[in-house]
Amino acid sequence: MSGVSLSVVSSSVTVRAPAKVNLHLGVGPLRKDGYHDLITVFQALSLYDDITVRQDPELSVHTRGDGAASVADDHTNLAYRAAVVLAEWANRAAGLSIDIDKSIPVAGGMAGGSADAAGALVAVAELWRLDIDRAELSALAAGLGSDVPFGLHGGTALGTGRGEQLVPVLSRGEFHWVLALADGGLSTPTVFAELDRLRENRAAADTPSGDPARPDRLLAALASGDPHAVAPLLHNDLQPAALGLKPALRRTLRAGLETGALGGIVSGSGPTCAFLCADHDSAVAVAAELAGAGVARGVRVASGPVPGAKVIDHG
Ligand SMILES: C[C@@](CO)(OP(=O)(O)O)[C@H](O)COP(=O)(O)OP(=O)(O)OC[C@H]1O[C@@H](n2ccc(N)nc2=O)[C@H](O)[C@@H]1O
Ligand SMILES: Nc1ncnc2c1ncn2[C@@H]1O[C@H](COP(=O)(O)OP(=O)(O)O)[C@@H](O)[C@H]1O
């Protein structure tokens, strides 16, 4: 049979999108637009949400998995908003069903909502076979949230501006993490506002309020691939604010260090705590001890860096 071309059109596309941790988070003063300039080092970790999109008459989103009950399945869901902005870009009707299977803790400082938005952008672009380049996709992502471009990018990256301007960072080897999940979440704007308040009262002496500097020593340590060099350089300006809002996290951080982690930090705006370990076996041992210590609602072992949002299945 000649002259017959079979073009396979997928009826569904599934994308896997990673969580992130900020190895360094330097926060500048409050800007006039309500945001803060950041200098941050993101690393994408092997804790994922899966986002599946299908053509459907109506646009809808359905979330299941960890914390799904506290995610609104309506027009405010970041994956839904991602589908709307991409449909507008493509000048198409956003007739889609979006299914999100969450493993990233909700409001946990690990950018789960941003992962879902990045995942929906990649999934819809693939389902519709859109001719959109990475720069355009990143611009749409930045309009959805400061962390969404990193959900597309993955790996290890230096973020500036609101956190949406990214350059890749050389990071050798694999880093092993234990994540201590907290009961309940922390609202990102509330944590930034608490940092502003602490700075006004000069109560956050370890988070100076000037323009943040590039963490050159951390960047060199990442290039060396040595977790012992990276661990003492982990830094988060938002940590005093997160600890002020959730004092129980102090115990969690202490417990992680006592059980043999090389370093521990509140992840982004919290309340998840991230512990860097010497290797995989050490991470498994730290996770087991932390789980027994009763200082977290759950623990996860993860490694990084991993890629950004990627297609894993066509239905
Ligand atoms: C703190 C960080 C660190 O990576 O992430 P999380 O730990 O929450 O995941 C990010 O800056 C969060 O990024 P994201 O969650 O996308 O925030 P956005 O939707 O853009 O902004 C939500 C709100 O957070 C505050 N915000 C966010 C980013 C920024 N550079 N300055 C800010 O002050 C603002 O109050 C803003 O209205
Ligand atoms: N798909 C989504 N998954 C999680 N949260 C979402 C989603 N869409 C919107 N949100 C909202 O974004 C807020 C922040 O969620 P999330 O990204 O999980 O945490 P964080 O900003 O701490 O990393 C949640 O409280 C929720 O109301």
From TrEMBL:
ATP binds at residues 105-115. InterPro entries: GHMP_kinase_C_dom (IPR013750), GHMP_kinase_C_sf (IPR036554), GHMP_kinase_N_dom (IPR006204), IspE (IPR004424), Ribosomal_Su5_D2-typ_SF (IPR020568), Ribsml_uS5_D2-typ_fold_subgr (IPR014721). Pathway: Isoprenoid biosynthesis; isopentenyl diphosphate biosynthesis via DXP pathway; isopentenyl diphosphate from 1-deoxy-D-xylulose 5-phosphate: step 3/6. The active site is at 20, 147. This is 4-diphosphocytidyl-2-C-methyl-D-erythritol kinase. Coiled coil: none annotated. The lineage of its organism: Bacteria, Bacillati, Actinomycetota, Actinomycetes, Mycobacteriales. HAMAP family: IspE. It catalyses: 4-CDP-2-C-methyl-D-erythritol + ATP = 4-CDP-2-C-methyl-D-erythritol 2-phosphate + ADP + H(+). Transmembrane segments: none annotated. Catalyzes the phosphorylation of the position 2 hydroxy group of 4-diphosphocytidyl-2C-methyl-D-erythritol. It comes from Gordonia pseudamarae. Belongs to the GHMP kinase family. IspE subfamily. It is an enzyme of class 2 (transferase). It comes from the Bacteria. GO terms for molecular function: 4-(cytidine 5'-diphospho)-2-C-methyl-D-erythritol kinase activity. Residues 219-292 form the GHMP kinase C-terminal domain. Keywords: ATP-binding, Isoprene biosynthesis, Kinase, Nucleotide-binding, Transferase. Its EC number is 2.7.1.148. Pfam families: GHMP_kinases_C, GHMP_kinases_N. SUPFAM superfamilies: GHMP Kinase, C-terminal domain, Ribosomal protein S5 domain 2-like. The keyword NADP does not apply. Residues 77-155 form the GHMP kinase N-terminal domain.
